[in-house]
């Protein structure tokens, strides 16, 4: 047994295996103990606990490997050089540890610590997303700078490299840079924000995510449209939620000639009142309004103007109004005409006329 342990490789392998297995066992024991406690019955709580335990296990193993093998020659052996700095496996692992740790801390802050703060100050979803992105980008930039300085790389030596990157952005990556800068403008100027209902090329959708290069729009059919960020800066976009969530719905109605227009106005006001009583989205102010557009080819044309508190309720409310209008017009014997056209025939073949007579 002692002869076996005198072998350095065998000894290191045994110790490493024992430590890693112990850490993994700690993960399973911790999971079992935590899941027995009250408050972890929900799926979301279990997912959060598993994520935290996996994070602890991963970094515990990484820290052990760094500490245990840091004095070994193969860990410090030069792989390549950057300027006067010799890059080894140990330096790479330390840099990766700092960057991944910063990424994990960013997720913990944005998903666990900052939401209670947002709820306390009642910040909207779009502003929360903006703060989360800014915090994440800032922390990652700081982590990269710290990792570079920790491994001994002089940042001033990277100026030439930065210049080359700048030329590449100017020529080969112009579109990517344009979308990235547009994304920053969107996050700070907020012409659109997460949760807004927008219309793009006659397609209605909600802004789901604003990423570095593109914005994700979720349509009413639960499809995703990936739009470059520059589109929202350069093109015309209809934003129903910008500044004010209230939206005026316009419901067109056509009735037959000869109908009592005063009765039509009264019935449409009745429809608006009934919808208000049955819907939390319909507003009392501004008041509903019936607009008599004029005299169409086949009908007397009206519009019912009604205000709702959220553009996301537009489809449902419009459908409910159409159902109510159809019902109330039928109950009051008000005809909704079909399109009519008068056909004037100048001349007809005599054979056709004879056939019609017979």
| Topology, number of strands | 10
Name the quaternary structure.
single chain
Q: How many helix segments?
A: 12
Cα distance spanning the termini: 119 Å
The percentage helix is 55-70%
Strand content: 15-25%
Shape: elongated
**Spans of at least 5 consecutive residues with low confidence:** none
Q: Calculate Rg over CA atoms.
A: 34 Å
Q: If you average the pLDDT, what whole number results? A: 80
Order of helices and strands: HHHHEEHHHHEEEEHEEHEEHH
Main beta sheet strand tally, sense and closure: 5 strands, antiparallel
Structural class comes to alpha+beta
Q: Give the strand order, joined by hyphens, for the main sheet.
A: 6-5-4-3-7
Give a short overview.
By secondary structure, the protein is an alpha+beta fold.
Describe the protein.
The model has no long low-confidence stretch (mean pLDDT 80). The chain has twelve helices and ten strands. Helix content is 57%, strand content 16%. The N and C termini lie far apart (119 Å). The strands form three sheets. It has a five-stranded antiparallel β-sheet with strand order 6-5-4-3-7. A three-stranded antiparallel β-sheet has the order 8-10-9, covered by helices on one side. Strands 1-2 form a two-stranded antiparallel ribbon. Helix 3 runs antiparallel to helix 5, helix 5 packs antiparallel against helix 6 and helix 10 crosses helix 11 (314-331). A hairpin with a 4-residue loop joins strand 5 and strand 6. The longest helix is centred in the N-terminal third of the chain and has 33 residues, at 89-121.
């Amino acid at each position: 047994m002692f002869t076996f342990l005198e072998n350095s490789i065998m000894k290191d392998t045994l110790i490493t295996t024992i430590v890693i297995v112990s850490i993994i066992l700690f993960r399973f024991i911790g999971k079992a103990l935590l899941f027995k406690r009250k408050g972890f019955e929900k799926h979301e709580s279990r997912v959060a606990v598993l994520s935290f335990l996996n994070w602890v296990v991963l970094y515990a193993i990484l820290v052990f490997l760094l500490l245990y093998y840091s004095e070994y020659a193969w860990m410090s052996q030069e792989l390549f050089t950057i300027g006067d700095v010799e890059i080894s496996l140990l330096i790479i692992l330390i840099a990766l540890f700092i960057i991944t740790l910063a990424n994990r801390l960013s997720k913990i802050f944005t998903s666990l610590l900052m939401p209670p703060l947002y709820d306390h100050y009642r910040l909207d979803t779009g502003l929360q997303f903006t703060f989360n992105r800014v915090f994440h980008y800032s922390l990652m930039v700081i982590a990269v700078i710290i990792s570079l300085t920790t491994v001994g790389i002089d940042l001033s030596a990277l100026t030439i490299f930065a210049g080359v990157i700048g030329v590449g952005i100017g020529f080969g990556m112009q579109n990517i840079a344009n979308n990235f800068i547009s994304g920053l403008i969107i996050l700070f100027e907020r012409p659109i924000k997460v949760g807004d209902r927008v219309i793009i090329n006659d397609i209605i959708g909600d802004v789901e995510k604003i990423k570095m290069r593109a914005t994700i729009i979720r349509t009413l059919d639960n499809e995703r449209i990936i739009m470059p960020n520059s589109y929202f800066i350069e093109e015309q976009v209809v934003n129903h939620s910008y500044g004010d969530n209230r939206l005026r719905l316009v419901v067109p109605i056509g009735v037959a000639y000869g109908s009592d227009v005063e009765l039509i106005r009264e019935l449409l006001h009745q429809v608006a009142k009934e919808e208000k009583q049955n819907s939390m989205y319909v507003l009392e102010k501004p008041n509903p309004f019936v607009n008599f557009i004029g005299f169409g080819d086949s009908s007397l044309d009206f519009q019912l103007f009604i205000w709702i508190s959220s553009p996301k309720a537009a489809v449902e409310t419009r459908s409910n109004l159409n159902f109510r209008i159809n019902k109330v017009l039928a109950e009051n014997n008000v005809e909704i005409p079909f399109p009519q056209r008068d056909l004037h025939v100048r001349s007809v073949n005599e054979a056709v006329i004879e056939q019609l007579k017979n």
